[in-house]
Write a structure and sequence with these properties.
The protein is an alpha/beta fold and about 325 residues long. The chain contains eleven helices and 13 strands.
């Protein structure tokens, strides 16, 4: 197993990125974050995410856009990373339907800019943050890395799939190791405010109605942030050529059961407003993690019941968690 000591993290001020940076810095590694602090949600939230990281001498921050070759080139030139974890992206299925061109620009073109720089600087490992959305509305369960992915059902999913394919192309042509990590509905402290668990929890706590799309039987493979970060770090330190790994809890939870867990931990009943299913949403996500377990020792440890308890505890003490 390799252990890279200088890591460039794109999108490092976000939910997953800030947790990853904390882990890497705590392990004694040097971390350089490239983040443009866009307004997809309040940039002040992202600045709070990384504020504690500034106490590390081994941490550096660069504000810049992954689509800008000069900004990316500067990050590689000045920091000289041994490995890259690329998490910066326009996120979310539903917003991508409204702004598909922007999603293509950031998620595909931005990834290509980074891959160019990784090639030019002989990067030791390129780790790409992908998504379970690439599986679309597949009927074969659980989702496995070798499944047919020819029918993505949202622009976001299509851009993440294109990013994976671009990663393979650069690996094939240039030889540097690449790992693509398909994240399954990540939640926990600092989760993005528009995601269901965070949004539902705030609204339940404030006695405001929550919007339920569909009949509540849709199921998701919810994965606690510490399990995801463990998978990212294990993958980072295990370059193997070109590999794709599912990172999930490998368990599905119906939406109504999730709401029940939130009610239980927040001590309030949800006020539910029902609406039809949304375009681009899938009925179920379910990760087969046997490959990640076998090759990198990935083992999710936090079940949804414990994860929601931890999230509710964080939300109760978080002044900046509101909308």
């Amino acid at each position: 197993m390799s252990r890279f000591s200088r890591i460039l993290v794109t999108g490092g001020a976000g939910f997953i990125g800030s947790h990853l940076c904390e882990r890497l810095l705590a392990e004694g590694r040097r971390v350089h974050v490239l983040d443009n602090f866009n307004d997809f949600y309040d940039p002040a939230v992202k600045r709070r995410n990384i504020q504690p990281l500034a106490s590390y001498d081994s941490f550096s921050l660069q504000e810049g856009d992954i689509r800008d070759p000069e900004a990316v080139g500067r990050a590689f030139r000045e920091f000289q990373p041994e490995a890259v974890v690329h998490l910066a992206a326009m996120a979310g299925v539903r917003p991508s339907i409204a702004k598909p061109v922007l999603y293509c620009d950031v998620n595909i073109a931005g990834t290509a800019v980074l891959l160019e720089a990784a090639r030019d600087n002989q990067t030791g490992h390129f780790v790409f943050g992908s998504s379970s959305s690439v599986y679309g509305a597949g009927e074969k369960l659980p989702f496995a890395e070798e499944d047919d992915l020819s029918r993505p059902i949202s622009p976001y999913a299509a851009t993440k799939l294109a990013g994976e394919q671009m990663c393979y192309t650069y690996h094939y042509l240039n030889g540097f190791p690449v790992s693509c990590l398909r994240f399954f509905t990540v939640y926990g402290p600092r989760q993005r405010p528009e995601m269901a668990i965070h949004m539902f929890a705030r609204r339940i706590r404030e006695n405001r109605p929550i919007t339920l799309f569909g009949d509540g039987t849709s199921r998701r493979d919810y994965t606690f942030i510490s399990d995801i970060i463990d998978g990212v770090v294990r993958s980072l330190d295990s370059p193997m050529g070109y590999e794709i790994f599912n990172l999930g809890e490998s368990r599905t939870v119906p939406l109504r059961e999730l709401i029940g867990l939130l009610e239980q931990n927040l001590g309030r009943k949800a006020i539910i407003q029902n609406f039809p299913d949304q375009p681009g949403d899938v009925p179920v996500t379910y990760a087969d993690v046997s490959k990640a377990r076998r090759l990198i020792g990935y083992e999710p440890k936090v079940p949804i019941e414990e994860g929601i308890r931890r999230f509710a505890t964080w939300l109760g003490g978080e002044k900046g968690a509101g909308e």
